[in-house]
Amino acid sequence: MLLPGDSIHISFVVTITNETVAALNSQTDKIEDIVILNLESKANLVFQQFQEAQITFPPSYKFDPGTDNYDTSTPSWCDRILWCKNDDVENLSYQSHPSLKMSDHKPVSASFNIKEKYDKVHQNVIRALDKFENESLPDATLDKNTLIYDSVYYKRPKTMKITLSNVGPVIVSFRFVPKLNDKTFCKPWLNVTPAFGMLLPGDSIPISFVVNITNETVAALNSQTDKIEDIVILNLENGKDFFVTVSGDFQPTCFGMPLSTLVHIHGPVRSRPKKGSAPLDIPKEIWRMVDYIYNFGLKTEGLFTIPGEQGMVDYIRECLDTGEPFNLPVKNNIKFN
C-alpha cells in the first residue's frame, strides 16, 4: 500500500554470470527468456497495463564506474522503460549507452512515434499559447473617436477631450504616432496632451485636443489650402490603434491675409465673397480702422503705445471680418479702444 506522495522501488533480479552476459551479447533473442520482469509481465502478474520493447542490450548494471567491467555483484537489467499499452504509441528504438561511464549504470533510452496524438497535442499547445498571448495583449477603450468643433476663430483656442481607459489585465503604454510619410502626428493648428503615457489596469486618463489658429496657420486656412480636418492615430504598444477624427468650421478672417488679396475682396471676408474684378485702392479693413481713429481716436492718450485689451481686439477683428459697425464705448464725446 502506498500513501499519497509515496513511492516504492521494485527490483526484479536474475542470477547471471559475466560469461552468460558475453554469450547473450551475440544471442539477443534469448535475453527475453531470462529477464524475470518480462516473464512476470507475460504471465499478467505485474504491470498488466504496460508494455516494453524487446531488450537487445546487455545488463545495464552494475559496472565499475569509469569502465565497461561489471563488478563482483550480479549483472542486472534494472534500467527499463515501460509505457502504458496504447495502439497510438509506436516504439522506434530501445537501447543502452555503454559509452557513458560516469556511473555504475549504463543509461537506457527509447524513442517513440505518437500516432495522431501529436496533432492533438500540437493544437492544444497552439490554442494555449494563443490564449496566453491574447490575455497578455493590452486592451483599452475611448469614450469617443470623433471631435467636431462648431466654429473655429483665429486666436480663440477651443478644447475638447476624450477619455482613454485601460480595460485589460496588463499595463497599457500609449502614444500618438505620425501617419505614413508624416513627421508629426497632427497638423500644426492642433495640440494634443498628453501625447504619450502609461495606464495601470482599471485606470483612465483624459486627453485634451486644443484647436488654436495662430499667425503660423491662419494663412493656409484663409486660402483654403488647409482645413480643420485631421485624423490622429493613438497606438497601444503591442496592441491596436485608435483613429480619432478632428474636424471644425473655420471662420475666415482678414488677419493673416495678404494686402494684395484683401484689395480684391469687396465684401466682408467672413461671407466668403468672390473676388471683385476691380481692386480697391486700399483694403476696406484698413480704411475702416483709419477712418474710425480719425473721427474718434486722435485725442486718445497712448493710442499707439498702450496695448488694447484682448477682448476689445477680438471685437474689432470680428467687426472687420463680418462688416458690422464699430460700437465702442464713448468717454467725453470721444470713443476709445
UniProtKB/TrEMBL annotation:
This protein's record includes keyword Hydrolase: yes
Coiled-coil intervals, chain numbering: none
Molecular function as annotated in GO: endonuclease activity; exonuclease activity; phosphatidylinositol-4,5-bisphosphate 5-phosphatase activity
Record flagged with keyword Transmembrane: no
Domain OCRL-1/2 ASH: start-end pairs: 142-250
One record GO biological process: phosphatidylinositol dephosphorylation
Gene3D superfamilies assigned: Endonuclease/exonuclease/phosphatase, Immunoglobulins, Rho GTPase activation protein
Entry-linked SUPFAM superfamilies: DNase I-like (SSF56219), GTPase activation domain, GAP (SSF48350)
Annotated ranges, domain Inositol polyphosphate-related phosphatase: 36-110
Domain of life of the organism encoding this protein: Eukaryota
Keyword entries, A-Z: Endonuclease, Exonuclease, Hydrolase, Nuclease
Protein name in the entry: Endonuclease/exonuclease/phosphatase domain-containing protein
